Every structure is written in C-alpha cells, then in structure tokens.
Amino acid sequence: MRACLEPKPGDGCINRLGVNDMSAEALRYCVGSDSSGPARVSKPPTLFGPAEATEFLARLVSPWTQELGLIVEACSPWGAALRLPRNSRILRPGNALSGQALLACADTAMAVAIMGHLGEVRNVATVTIATDFMRGIPAGDVIVAATVRRRARTLIFAECTFAEPGIPEIAVHATATWAFIPAAISI
Fold this sequence. Notes:
Blueprint: E1 2-3, E2 31-32, H1 50-60, H2 63-66, E3 71-76, E4 79-84, E5 91-92, E6 96-97, H3 99-118, E7 124-133, E8 142-151, E9 155-163, E10 172-180
Antiparallel strand pairs: 1-2, 3-4, 4-8, 5-6, 7-10, 8-9, 9-10
C-alpha cells in the first residue's frame, strides 16, 4: 500500500506525508499496492479544490459528520487528504479512536475525493463500504488519504487509508463502491 505526492513507482510512502508536506498545489495522491495509480483523469471540468471541499463539508454532510471536525488538507483530481483532529468525544475505552467515527471519516474522505476527481459536486451514494481496522489509533490527529480507483458509467470505486503523522504503518484501510444518482445538487 502506498500514498504519494507525485505518482512515481516505488516512491513516496505514507510515513513521508506529514501535515506540513501537504498542499493543494502539490497533491497528487495515488493510493494502492500496484503501479497502476489512481483512476485516470482525462480532463477535470473544473477544479474542486480545498476551498470547495471545505464548503462541501460545511454545507452538505450530516451534522454528526460535521462534529468530527474534519479539516481538508488537500483536494485535487488525484485525491484528497483530510485531517481528523484530536477529539475526546470519539474515543472508546482504552483511549483509541472509535471504529464508527473512523468509518464515517472514510466515507466522507472518499466523497471528497470523488468530487475532486469529477471537478464538481455530483449526487453520489455509497453502495458498499468495507473497512479493515489493522491496528488501533490512539487519541491524536489522523491523516485520511482517499482516491478514486476507477470510474465507470454508473459506479465509482474509491479507496482510503488512515495513518498517524510520522508513523509508517497504515492503521485503517477502506474501499467503497459509489453510484451516481440522477438528482442534481448545488453548492
């Protein structure tokens, strides 16, 4: 599994992505275990960047997701990076982050990555989501990196990973299938 700023085979791993390294201009995420990289972007119709992603989170996600306090670090046609800041309300016994909160973060990060990939807000819905919790994440900031793996005519396949800044191991990995819904959404 790798996440990189510039898609180069064998280069850039999640432990080299500190919060200070991420900028909207530099971000080109590729999250995956192969060299195929993220889904190809033929031509983004418009830029759905960090400002648009932040507005999307403020206006179109559920109130309980907004309470997580997700911060958009970067968003581009190649993916998105969000930061989940320390939040004592989502801790479970043992001082680890709650799986339910992390799943909500994964779903939200993949939605932002999809909008970045499409270049605009589109009405999409999660069809399936699978999450592997590989190790507990202690209280503290968490970086959530998401990307679109493939876009089909009616479905989009997305993936995301969670890691603590400065820790090389990925703690959570999620994949989801999304469907395009005909109704329009405007920001």
